[in-house]
Amino acid sequence: MHLKSLELHGFKSFPDKIKLTFNKGLTAVVGPNGSGKSNISDAIRWVMGEQSTKNLRGAKMEDVIFGGTQMRKPQGFAQVSITIDNSERRIDMDCDEVTVTRKLYRSGESEYRINGNHVRLKDIHEMFMDTGLGRDGYSIIGQGKIAEIISSKSTQRREIFEEAAGISKYRYRKAEAQKQ
Ligand code: ATP
Ligand code: MG
Fold this sequence. Notes:
The chain is α+β, with helices and mostly antiparallel strands. Helix content is 28%, strand content 21%. It contains five helices and six strands. It has helices spanning 37-47, 121-128, 145-151, 154-165, 168-179; strands at residues 3-9, 18-21, 77-85, 97-105, 110-114, 117-119. A six-stranded antiparallel beta sheet has the order 2-1-3-4-5-6. A hairpin with a 2-residue loop joins strand 5 (110-114) and strand 6. Residues 12-13, 31, 33-39, 63, 65-67 line the site of adenosine-5'-triphosphate (ATP). It is found in: Cytoplasm. Belongs to the SMC family. Homodimer.
């Protein structure tokens, strides 16, 4: 399973639609300070369902929408799509590629899609569960994450190991069943 491409449109410092493609193996993003490197990892977090504005380095969710510069007017929405190679079927869907899209309008209206079909945030969360990807996955190690793992409470540490072992979904399903 690997990240094949990332498409940004109106997200943070990327007003125009751009597509970044990645090969298997290591990719490094280089550039001067403030050129948008961290905005790329923010986009990956965001499209996988991140709800914390703090993790996205903003004050409110609207801050992910291109806010304009002296030369350009602001955008009305932010849209990010991520395409993941699924030829090994690590994600429980019968297709070789999975594309997840998130769009947010200034009005606050938002949409999520999987392979073009409208879904709920919950569906994205469930799809990524136990793959290591997703909002609660360990595939993005941000600054401070290592220290957090070492110093966090044993219950939180256990959650990280459960995700890595691929058993989070059982705890999740049990909790969901108990709600009903
Ligand atoms: P560093 O090397 O310092 O870590 P970086 O390449 O990671 O820099 P980012 O933090 O990704 O840089 O990008 C910061 C830039 O993104 C700033 O110039 C900021 O103005 C711009 N930016 C962030 N949010 C928006 C937004 N909503 N609209 C327009 N520009 C934005
Ligand atoms: Mg940075």
